[in-house]
Amino acid sequence: MSLMRAFEIGSTGLVAQSIRLNTTASNIANVETLEGPDGRPYRGRQVVFRTTPIQGTPGAGVEVANIVENDAPLRKEYKPGHPRADGQGYIEMPNVNPVEEMVNMISASRSYQMNIELMSNTRLLITRTLSMGK
User: Fold this and answer.
1) pLDDT band, very low/low/confident/very high, at 94 (cuts 50, 70, 90)
2) Using CA atoms, how far apart are residues 73 and 9, in angstroms rounded to an integer?
3) Which of 5, 22, 116, 121 has a 20 to 30 A CA-CA distance from 97?
4) Are 65 and 50 in contact (CB under 8 A)?
5) CA 112 to CA 124: how far, in whole Å?
6) CA distances from 27 to 14, 41, 72, 85, 103 (A)
7) CB 92 within 8 Å of CB 76
8) Parent domain of 65
């Protein structure tokens, strides 16, 4: 594998983890959103990755295959005086778990950082290789 491919692999990881971070931030921001554009409570979203070939190397990079809604059931909270409460006094809340989202954010952030380090170390290797001829 050439050193230039390492930049390509790292850049695919940066893009994928950036999308994952943005999706996670959106989930956290909407943890209390009772009504989305469709009139229903917000549903958490998850990023699905897949490998992607880079210059004929199968499975060398990563890309976002899809962003899917979390299929977990909506949370129910007892708030009898709320205008959206049902006959028993419960309202439907988003199915976003803030603790899981924070773990997801830390994981995506560390993956993003690892890809930056990969590209930085590759640059250092190229620089040192070029300086050997001096």
Assistant:
1) very high
2) 36
3) 116
4) yes
5) 19
6) 20, 12, 14, 23, 12
7) yes
8) 3-131
Which residues, 6 or more positions from 122, have their beta carbon under 8 angstroms from its beta carbon?
3, 6, 7, 10
Burial of 97 from C-beta contacts in 10 A (0-12 / 13-18 / 19+): middle
Q: Which residue type does 18 have?
A: S
Q: How confident is the model at residue 53 (pLDDT cuts 50, 70, 90)?
A: confident
Residue among 104, 107, 113, 116 nearest 25 (CA) = 104
As given in the structure block, the two tokens for residue 114 are 């690892």
Q: What is the pTM for the complete model shown?
A: 0.86
Distance from C-alpha of 74 to C-alpha of 129, rounded to nearest angstrom = 56
Q: Structural domain tally of the chain?
A: 1
